[in-house]
TrEMBL record:
It is a multi-pass membrane protein. The keyword Endoplasmic reticulum applies. One of its GO terms (molecular function) is aspartic endopeptidase activity, intramembrane cleaving. This is Histocompatibility (minor) 13. GO terms for cellular component: cytoplasmic side of endoplasmic reticulum membrane; lumenal side of endoplasmic reticulum membrane. Keywords: Endoplasmic reticulum, Hydrolase, Membrane, Transmembrane, Transmembrane helix. It comes from Electrophorus electricus. InterPro entries: Peptidase_A22B_SPP (IPR007369), Preselin/SPP (IPR006639). Belongs to the peptidase A22B family. SMART domains: PSN.
Length: 374
């Protein structure tokens, strides 16, 4: 949800959730004088596009099976049409609230609290992301003990599960590795550590945030389309928040990597909102493809290519007009329009909009239904 911006040491617009922008470290005087080479710029933007595609692709694949999980930590959160309609309002309030906080309170202390908050969230997100990969890498003969963290409310027949988290030894190894990355990020704020957390947040968002139908996706993307354009072009609130907010809510890649190596500091940036929001819609279309039982992934690949086109168009327009651009201004029409056109051509538009994602009931809901039957 946000914009992309070009130019050294130019403050970039940001959303409270996630923004996309291209800026530099304003606190670094040498970076302010740095002019990116065409090679450095191409490498930076190419890397950002690639990093954006990875969590969308793999998050969408993982979203197909996530709803079947019995582990509360792996079960998706379903976004309804009411949630989608309220989301831009909540996001706007959050953005303006952050703006007021940074105006009233010390930026240093607020960012310290945010660092601790994202330190914990980042460790959990990265651990969850690594878990399937670790299951394939670690030796099969490694002792793998099972653990369960169970938190309930009440007793007897009225007992309700609040948290039911199952994990094993391999999950603990993932947690240990993620903790090392977390400490690295808190101490150094290094861009590589930032990207590891950012990729984990994005992949988890695409995997675990499910739209219940295409209409809900259109409501969400349409509302955030207006939100993005308004806050980027209509006010300076995003600029103020972007200059003050320090958190791994964006992917970054240095444009001066070829000249300065890993110590580079002139960053091109892409906000996670411009990955997650279109990503959950693309993941929904993949699940729709699966429901058709035709062994094709037409709508998934169409929307995936549309995302690449929209992101590329954003970068092109930004460089052509030398002005910040709200990325969702281009991503939303592309990601929604292309699959709709394909559905019209294939005669499946009605079927697409009638598709309703069924989700398994939680233990609490199952108990309620059982009580009703009795």
């Amino acid at each position: 949800m946000a914009d992309m911006e070009q130019g050294p040491a130019v403050p970039a617009e940001a959303s409270p959730l996630l923004e996309s922008l291209n800026a530099t470290d304003a606190g670094n005087a040498s970076a302010a004088r740095f002019v990116a080479t065409p090679e450095g710029t191409a490498l930076a933007y190419g890397s950002l596009v690639l990093m954006a595609l990875l969590p969308i692709f793999f998050g969408a694949l993982r979203s197909v099976s996530s709803s079947k999980s019995k582990n509360s930590s792996d079960m998706p959160e379903t976004i309804t049409s009411r949630d989608a309609a309220r989301f831009p309002i909540i996001a706007s309030c959050t953005l303006f609230g952050l703006y007021l906080f940074f105006k009233i309170f010390s930026q240093e202390y607020i960012n310290l609290l945010l660092s601790m908050y994202f330190f914990v969230l980042g460790i959990l997100a990265l651990s969850h992301t690594m878990s399937p990969f670790m299951n394939r890498v670690l030796p099969a003969n490694l002792p793998n003990k099972q653990y369960q963290l169970l938190f309930t409310q009440g007793s007897g027949e009225s007992k309700e599960e609040i948290v039911n988290y199952e994990f094993d030894t391999k999950d603990l190894i993932c947690l240990g590795i993620s903790s090392v990355v977390g400490v690295w990020y808190v101490i150094k704020k290094h861009w590589v550590a930032n990207n590891l957390f950012g990729l984990a947040f994005a992949l988890n968002g695409v995997e675990l945030l499910h739209l219940n139908n295409v209409s809900t996706g259109c409501i969400l993307l349409g509302g955030l389309f207006v939100y993005d354009v308004f806050w980027v072009f209509g006010t300076n609130v995003m600029v103020t928040v972007a200059k003050s907010f320090e958190a791994p809510i964006k992917l970054v890649f240095p444009q001066d990597l070829l000249e300065r190596g890993l110590s580079a500091s002139n960053f091109a940036m892409l906000g996670l909102g411009d990955i997650v929001i279109p990503g959950i819609f693309i993941a929904l279309l993949l699940r729709f493809d699966v429901s058709l039982k035709k062994n094709t992934r037409t709508y998934f690949y169409t929307s995936f290519l549309a995302y690449i086109f929209g992101l590329g168009l954003t970068i092109f327009v930004m460089h052509t007009f030398k002005h910040a651009q709200p990325a969702l201004l281009y991503l939303v029409p592309a990601c929604v329009g292309f699959p709709v056109v394909v559905a019209l051509v294939k005669g499946e538009l009605t079927e697409m909009f009638r598709y309703e994602e069924s989700s398994e009931m939680s233990p609490k809901e199952e108990k309620t239904e059982t009580d009703k039957e009795k």
